Amino acid sequence: MISDIPILYEDNDIIVVNKPAGLIVHSDGRTEEFSVADWVAKKYPEARGVGEDWVSPQGENIPRPGIVHRLDRTTSGVMVLAKTQEAFLHLKKQFQTRVIEKTYDALVYGHPKQGGGVIELEIGRTKAKPRRWIAQFAHGKKRSAITEWKVRGRYTDPETKEAIAHLEASPKTGRTHQIRVHLKAIHHPIVCDHLYAGKRPCILGFERPALHARSLTFVLSSGEQKTFETPPPDDFSRALEQLRSR
Closest Cα to residue 178, out of 225, 205, 207, 143? Predict the structure, then answer.
């Protein structure tokens, strides 16, 4: 069980951490397991009242001390947490106004024809089980989700001969599973994505979607803009090394 989280930066207002893959950000109201929110409450008891509760589908109020944004359980990488309510509101406004810049690394099946582009599609929920998200054109008052992407490398898996691309993705909005759903929509789902890659086999040693939140740029309470970056974890690094060795 993960009991500690690497800290990249800390001041009186915020903590920037490198969330490991496999760690949930806050309780889902169905299972009991250690989360980022639990870590904040334990390590920074003064932050227990910071943030906003989440209401689960079962109607339960779930405390989320310090949580301003989320990463999927299976996604590793940079997260910023608030230690005070003032910092929480300061960061929340930046997310809402799209001031914060987020950059992800992804390994996907296939080689995109273009070197990059912008995906602008609304994300809705399917009715069929298992419930998942799906990209679709916006209608009426619905708002599109926006993801910019570009190719950082084109490779071939030495074992399966599968075409693999290393993409950089920058979501401009913050919908659930946005990058995963958008990359599926352009027919290049993330490697080992159990929800959105269909029955395609997990390759390159991955046991989770090959997605890593590499960097986060935002304005501190002091007014200074800073970028926080973390290298990909071992599974991602090994996969890139394997691909680049060809």
Answer: 143
Task: Answer yes or no: is pLDDT of 165 > 70.
Answer: yes
Catalytic-residue membership of 72? yes
Catalytic residue among 72, 105, 157, 193: 72
Query: Lowest-confidence range among 65-69, 78-82, 120-124?
Result: 120-124
Query: Domains plus CATH for the chain?
Result: 1-97 (3.30.2350.10), 102-214+231-246 (3.30.2350.10)
Extract the tokens encoding 94: 């930046």
Segment 45-64, tens digit of pLDDT: 999 999 887 766 566 677 78
Q: Give ∠ CA 14-167-104 in degrees, rounded to 5.
A: 10
The answer to whether the peptide bond before residue 130 is cis (omega within 30 degrees of 0) is yes
What confidence tier does 130 reach under pLDDT thresholds 50, 70, 90?
A: low
Q: Is the pLDDT of residue 72 over 50?
A: yes
pLDDT of residue 140: 47
Closest of 229, 216, 9, 230 to residue 100, by C-alpha:
216
Beta-bridge partner residues of 218: 226
- For the CA atoms of 242, 116, 212, 46, the dihedral, rounded to the nearest 10 degrees, stands at 160
Mean pLDDT, residues 216-223 taken together: 96
Going through the chain in order, the beta strands assigned E by DSSP cover 7-10, 14-19, 54-55, 61-62, 76-82, 101-109, 116-125, 133-136, 145-156, 163-171, 211-219, 225-229
